[in-house]
Amino acid sequence: MDITIAGTGGRVSRIAFGPLSGLAAELEIKRTVIVTDGLLRRVHGSEFPPCPVIEVERGEAAKSLAALETLYGRFLDLGLGRDSLVLAIGGGAISDLAGFAASTWLRGVGFGFAPTTLLAMVDASVGGKNGVDFRGLKNLVGTFSQPDFVRMDVSLLATLPDVEFASGMAEVVKHAVLAGGSYFELVEAAARRGAGEGRRPSPAELEAIVSGSVELKALVVSRDEKESGERRKLNLGHSVGHGIEAATGLPHGHSVAAGLGTICRLAVRKGRMRAEECDRITRLLGAWGLPSSISAATALAPARGDGSALRASIAAAIAADKKRRGADILVALPEALGSVSVEAMNLAELQAYVMEAP
To answer: S-S: 244 plus which of 83, 213, 231, 255, CB 3.0-4.6 Å?
Structure first.
């Protein structure tokens, strides 16, 4: 299955499923450089195209200005020109860093992604958002630039630790809420078939789940690449989730899951969503081993400390969100499965709810 995203200036991003090892036959090897981390290179390096490899730090530590400067230096050493291609093999942090570096090096060179985590497959590798963190806040420096291609190889997920797999399922559930209907039922059915006991979906189920997420996101991005309208719905759960991530150090997906559960409960309080649908969403998050509330998230925090202090830190971090507009913040608010609105909410109101929410 091939999925395309039409970007600005006629740029087309092609998303295809297939083995990582097959990429070598599709690339100009002499013009390609790989960006990855050391662990992935050891585990999957035999499947990499035979290109020069640049290793960066693993995880969110890769998304720093210092790492970006180091990557630019390696580009210079390797003589990357305007006809070069940067291939990011790894999770979302690597694709964010490499995509940003490629889209700004010499004012833009080609790049592609081979995501190796579920979170990267359904989120970071699709849509053209690239960037790095700044002063502990996510993605404050970045670009909108579509990759030339994305190669999805779901067999790579077999080596993914359980906590990283669950983190990816948070974005899947978010997409399922946005899509509603048969896609939500697909994810729900996969959970019923044993996710609670640690059984992951079969490769066929997994490809169907990833395909559904990618198709939804690709459709939205094709209509609103620069996030001026409809694409803001993809931030569902993220306004609170990014605050949780910054304050607790939990993985991105776990933080978004807690943010999604929290915003669903706020929608119920406002009379915008039925409690039954909110419960259905939070049960699905729980079935995949994810927290669905701020209390559950803070209980998992590496350095738990005082609960009130953690909530205050979450509330403070929300104020730095890129979607803030003066005293308001643009929030994706769920109304039903398959129906999400975006509206300006008073920042102080949202912060007050964070302090008292379950």
So the answer is: 255
